């Protein structure tokens, strides 16, 4: 039986190749994600190990993971610089190296939007005995007006040694001369993530307002001292909010943090690997089901010759196993190339250069890829293999393959699964509209809708066997030519085969449509919400990496006196633990300017009463917590627990929920923490004034305040929509791979169908059908199957896109169907069908008429 398995694979090389191709993509994504992750881990671990070679111990501010407010901190942690005296007094400590760092603000380039997204820019004080950085070119800074910058910053701005650049910290912009090129550790170019700048130590202290503070301490121990023992002694001597760790542990922790920061790429790859494997599994299952049906007589003869059911089962399984092994081995090689591509993509997107330690291909990654691919192929062939064992010896006497009709239970099972899944989506929509979507922190509707999506695909797969005849009948109703009619009936007379073949395309295109509709709807909803949520014409806010850095108190009077400005509303904020136990931000408003500060509607109570301990609550939060006017709400601030009375309940304009749902008086926030700065200023321009000119004037006035910028609403919308469009394009591109696997499935099915209909095609040729007509028949059949899959996929995609949009956004979500994408998907499926028919059509036209008629 093993020899027969090898013979079948060898004699049907194209079939075996196409079967393997359906598995290769999924395995490649699995292996690519594992190789990329392993390479990243090894590269960063090696990088930080080299960077920390100059010290033995690192002292950092400790992160209290039990403190819920710690998650709301965007700034860089600091500690008292006087701790150096405590550290020096510990036995075994030979040298203490203080470190200061902060977020630096680079003056925006001409035409560059202030703020925005991307890696942070971090500046630090240079010390000759510091450990993390070296100078790759030029010299370290020695005066208050010199800076050494990372290569990524210089390249981005077209600067070189000797050029000048304006940089600010917590104060005004200052002009610096570039004197050196920074290099992270000893690995050239490994500056992935933040952008770095080095100043003299004194300059950094002043620039980031770090006088009397330190970001960390590097420690070298005395000769002969045990590092772990010194670490223990330091942790006993230092206060609880400070932690000492060995340099080795610090290197591993920082490498893990950076790796986690881009870990979403790994998750993306694994998700798409799963999708590609599911689609490939459908292809393999359908192919083996058709092959078993075509070999009914052959298998029947084997039964006549004495083969047992177990031997037939093993024969089919062995074929799938061999294909899985070969495809998995190929997928491993392709996966290594995927890892290289992901690395290049990250660097292209501006994440900086990754550590150049090369790819790390572990035995675990290779073994996982081979196991995943082989198991997928084998399990996909299991049901057809079991069916092979049911073939009786009498099947050898039949002249043709029995065509099995779809059984009625498929209809009822499909309706049941589809109905239950659709009901779950409606429940998720009701939950999101009744409470809040994922964007407000409620993940339950998304979880329910995501689970229902799996059920919908399964339900439609079951229904496809019943829907194939009527839907393809409708798609081909206008066909008058003989070739089109034959193609339509060929696709309809084997609904199980047609449905299974179309299922792979249904999954791929359904996911593409879901993502397209979801992203368009979310993007339009968010952009509309952004536009609706601003009553102001201009927003002034921190433009650096830390959105909570705040604004100087000097800015508000300058803005009020600026030409073209009619009024300005101040907002501040305070981190707090909400009544539901979650950490969030409490917004401070001035009641007299609240109509400018936020856009709202349907107010119950009065904003004028938000004074003292009064609080205004967004209605969706009030409903969730069961709050009414006059109720008491408890917030836990850093300074302690405070009680507030609900004096107003409101809806945001556009009926879109927001995660910040509690608003108290601006001056009450200042009472809780007098150092609290303004979070933003909302500005209304004079009637008839040009908003762009006012923005330009304000930015000129704010030029002395580094990290602060004025933006029109259009600029804010552009900042929000840019990353959304980039993410959508990346996801759609990866999902397109699953559509390509589905096309392979159509090629394979039609290839097998041509072989099955050899005698039929020969008879058609004998009675006068030309080669071109035969090719057109195969081509139209492929198009009908592809369009059938497209109809099912787009139906699922539109429904799921709507459901997931509401589950994410909640109230106020709007369905936006990108009809260009939908139409392109439908027409693209027809084109895919034409492409998929090339090989089967060519095979059909090569049949010899006499040999075909003499078949069997």
Please sum up the structure shown.
The protein is α+β, with helices and mostly antiparallel strands and 856 residues long.
- Ends distance: 23 Å
Residues in β-strands, percent:
15-25%
Oligomer: single chain
Radius of gyration: 33 Å
Low-pLDDT stretches? 187-192, 399-403
| Main sheet record | 10 strands, mixed
How many beta-strand segments? 24
Averaging pLDDT over every residue, what do you get? 79
Structural class, please?
Answer: alpha+beta
Q: What helical percentage do the residues reach?
A: 40-55%
- Enumerate how many helices there are, as a single number: 27
- Tell me the overall shape: globular
Could you describe the 3D structure shown?
There is one protein chain. This protein is α+β, with helices and mostly antiparallel strands. It is built from 27 helices and 24 strands. The strands form 4 sheets. Strands 15, 16, 17, 18, 19, 20, 21, 22, 23 and 24 form a 10-stranded mixed β-sheet that branches. Strands 4, 5, 6, 7, 8, 9, 10 and 11 form an 8-stranded mixed β-sheet that branches. A 4-stranded antiparallel β-sheet has the order 3-13-1-14. A hairpin with a 2-residue loop joins strand 20 (632-637) and strand 21. The chain is globular and about 95 Å long. Residues 187-192 and 399-403 have low confidence and may be disordered.
Q: What's the arrangement of secondary structure elements?
A:
Layout: H1 2-11, H2 13-51, E1 57-61, E2 79-80, H3 83-88, E3 93-99, E4 101-103, E5 105-106, E6 121-126, E7 133-138, E8 146-150, H4 151-157, E9 164-168, E10 174-184, E11 195-200, H5 201-207, E12 213-214, E13 216-221, H6 227-237, E14 242-246, H7 247-261, H8 263-294, H9 296-304, H10 309-348, H11 363-380, H12 382-389, H13 408-434, H14 444-475, H15 482-493, H16 495-532, E15 538-542, H17 555-560, E16 565-577, E17 583-589, H18 594-597, E18 600-605, E19 614-618, H19 619-625, E20 632-637, E21 640-652, E22 662-665, H20 666-672, E23 680-685, H21 691-701, E24 708-712, H22 713-756, H23 758-766, H24 771-809, H25 819-836, H26 838-845, H27 849-853
Parallel strand pairs: 6-11, 8-10, 17-22, 19-21
Antiparallel strand pairs: 1-13, 1-14, 2-12, 3-13, 4-6, 5-9, 7-10, 8-11, 9-10, 15-23, 15-24, 16-17, 16-23, 18-21, 19-22, 20-21
């Amino acid at each position: 039986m093993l020899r027969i398995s090898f013979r079948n694979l060898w004699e049907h090389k194209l079939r075996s190749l196409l079967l393997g191709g359906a598995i290769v993509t999924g395995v490649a994504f699995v292996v690519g994600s594992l190789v990329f992750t392993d390479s990243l881990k090894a590269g960063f671990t090696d990088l930080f190990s080299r960077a920390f070679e100059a010290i033995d111990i690192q002292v950092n501010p400790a992160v209290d993971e039990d403190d819920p407010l710690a998650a709301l901190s965007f700034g860089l942690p600091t500690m008292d610089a006087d701790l150096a005296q405590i550290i020096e007094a510990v036995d075994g400590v030979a040298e203490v190296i203080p470190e200061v760092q902060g977020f630096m603000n680079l003056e925006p380039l001409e035409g560059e939007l202030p703020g925005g997204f991307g890696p942070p820019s971090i500046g630090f004080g240079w010390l000759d005995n510091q450990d993390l950085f070296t100078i790759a070119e030029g010299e370290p800074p020695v005066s208050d007006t010199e800076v050494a910058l990372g290569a990524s910053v210089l390249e981005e701005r077209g600067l070189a040694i000797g050029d000048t650049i304006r940089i600010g910290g917590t104060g005004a912009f200052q002009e610096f001369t570039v004197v050196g090129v920074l290099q992270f550790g000893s690995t050239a170019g490994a500056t992935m993530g933040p952008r770095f700048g080095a100043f003299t130590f004194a300059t950094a202290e002043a620039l980031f307002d770090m006088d009397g503070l330190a970001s960390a301490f590097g420690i070298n121990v005395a000769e002969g001292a045990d590092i772990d023992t010194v670490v223990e002694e330091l942790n006993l001597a230092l206060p609880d909010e400070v932690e000492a760790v060995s340099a080795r542990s610090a290197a591993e922790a920082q490498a893990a943090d950076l790796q986690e920061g881009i870990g979403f790429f790994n998750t993306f790859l694994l998700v798409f690997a799963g999708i590609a494997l599911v689609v490939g599994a459908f292809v393999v299952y359908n192919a083996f089901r058709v092959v078993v049906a075509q070999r009914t007589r052959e298998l029947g003869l084997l039964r006549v010759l004495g083969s047992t059911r177990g031997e037939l089962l093993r024969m089919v399984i062995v074929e799938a196993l061999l294909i899985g092994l070969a495809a998995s081995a190929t997928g491993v090689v392709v996966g290594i190339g995927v890892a290289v591509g992901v690395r290049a993509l990250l660097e292209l997107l501006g994440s900086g250069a990754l550590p150049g330690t090369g790819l790390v291909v572990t035995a675990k990654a290779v073994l996982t890829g081979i196991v995943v691919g082989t198991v997928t192929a084998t399990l996909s062939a299991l049901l057809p293999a079991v069916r092979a064992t049911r073939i009786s010896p009498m099947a050898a006497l039949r002249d043709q393959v029995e065509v099995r009709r779809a059984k009625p239970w498929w209809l009822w099972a499909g309706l049941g699964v589809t109905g239950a899944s659709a009901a779950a989506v409606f429940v998720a929509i009701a939950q999101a509209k009744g409470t809040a979507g994922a964007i407000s922190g409620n993940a339950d509707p998304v979880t329910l809708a995501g689970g229902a999506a799996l059920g919908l695909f399964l339900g439609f797969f079951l229904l496809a066997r019943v829907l194939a005849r009527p839907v393809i009948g409708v798609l081909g109703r206008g066909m008058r030519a003989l070739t089109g009619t034959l193609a339509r009936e060929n696709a309809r007379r084997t609904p199980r085969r047609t449905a299974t073949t179309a299922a792979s395309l249904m999954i791929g295109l359904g996911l593409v449509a879901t993502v397209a509709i979801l992203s368009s709807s979310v993007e339009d909803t968010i952009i509309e919400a952004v536009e609706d949520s601003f009553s102001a014409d201009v927003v002034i806010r921190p433009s650096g990496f830390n959105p909570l850095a705040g604004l100087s108190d000097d800015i508000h009077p300058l803005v009020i006196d600026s030409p073209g400005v009619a009024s300005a509303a101040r907002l501040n904020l305070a981190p707090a633990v909400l009544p539901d136990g979650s950490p969030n931000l409490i917004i401070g408003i001035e009641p007299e300017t609240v109509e400018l500060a936020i856009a709202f509607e349907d107010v119950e109570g009065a904003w004028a009463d938000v004074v003292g301990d009064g609080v205004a609550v967004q209605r969706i939060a009030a409903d969730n917590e069961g709050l009414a006017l006059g109720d008491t709400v408890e917030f836990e601030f850093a300074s302690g627990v405070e009680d507030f009375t609900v004096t107003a309940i409101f809806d945001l304009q556009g009926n879109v929920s927001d995660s910040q749902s509690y608003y108290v008086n601006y001056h009450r926030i200042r009472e809780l923490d007098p150092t609290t700065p303004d979070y933003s200023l909302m500005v209304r321009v004079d009637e008839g004034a040009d908003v762009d000119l006012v923005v330009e004037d304000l930015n000129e006035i704010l030029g002395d305040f580094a990290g602060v910028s004025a933006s029109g609403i259009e600029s804010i919308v552009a900042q929000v929509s840019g990353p959304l469009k980039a993410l959508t394009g990346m996801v759609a591109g990866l999902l397109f791979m699953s559509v390509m696997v589905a096309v392979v499935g159509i090629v394979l099915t039609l290839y097998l169908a041509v072989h099955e209909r050899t005698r039929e095609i020969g008879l058609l040729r004998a009675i006068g059908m030309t080669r071109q007509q035969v090719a057109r028949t195969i081509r139209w059949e492929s198009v009908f199957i592809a369009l059938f899959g497209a109809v099912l996929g787009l139906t699922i995609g539109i429904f799921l896109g709507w459901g997931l949009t509401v589950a994410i956004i909640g109230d106020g979500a709007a369905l936006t169907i990108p009809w260009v994408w939908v139409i392109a998907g439908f027409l693209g499926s027809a084109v895919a069908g034409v492409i998929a028919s090339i090989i089967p059509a060519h095979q059909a036209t090569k049949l010899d008429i006499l040999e075909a008629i003499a078949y069997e």
